[in-house]
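Following the same procedure, backbone shapes were mapped to integers, yielding the entry below.
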Amino acid sequence: DKDCIVGIIGQSTLLPCVYKNGNQDMLLSDIGIEWRADSVVVYSFVYGKEIREVQGKDYANRTHLFTEVLKKGNFSLRLEDIKVKDIQYYKCIFNRKGFGSSEPLDQVCLTVAAHYTDPVVQRDAEGGEAQFNCSSGQGFPEPTVHWLINGERPPVDTVRSTVTQEPDTKLFSVRSLLTANVTQEIIVSCTIENHRLKENKTSAVIY
């Protein structure tokens, strides 16, 4: 998804579409624009008027076209309250009155992401072993967990991570458990990596 626009879940994002018409302004009454996701109409503007009746129900009250720049050929669409199910290819189709058939202008790939909460690291001692719990949530897509003990990665078999997904929001939560033998003071850190946002969040404890 490296060529996709990344929308943040719960926020709005702009799907760009520009018609290069030189410096000549167009009349709104001559402009027809339709944004589609596969066969579903995301937004329809026909010769000066929004047509809400044909809009897919998932997009109702979530779309906005900037009418003040339409005459310049800027048909970019703002999609609000981004959701996981908005991951899709969106096509911008232009029809100018008196110029024949519709013309596909742009196809925009949209993917989504959400910031994980700062990880919380807790420790529980049991004899010579210590267990460290790292938890974070409200993120998307599924994260990668990185543990360090004094700056070095622990053995793979000492880490056990569980990821769960909310059925409604589709956001992920993660809980990771690290078991370590402790004979001296150590610094343990847990990093939650969101590769889509190129974002790492880290917490550490001294034990």
Notes: The chain has one helix and 16 strands.
